[in-house]
Amino acid sequence: MITETGKVVAVTGEHAWVQTIRTSACQSCAARNGCGQKVLASASGGRANQVLVVNSVNARVGEEVTLGIDEGALLGASLLVYALPLLLMVVASVLGHYLSGGSDFAAMSGAVAGLASGFLASRQIQCRNTGNYEPMLLRVNRIPAGVVSPPDSLT
Question: Which of 65-74, 88-97, 123-132 has maximum average pLDDT?
Answer without folding.
Answer: 88-97
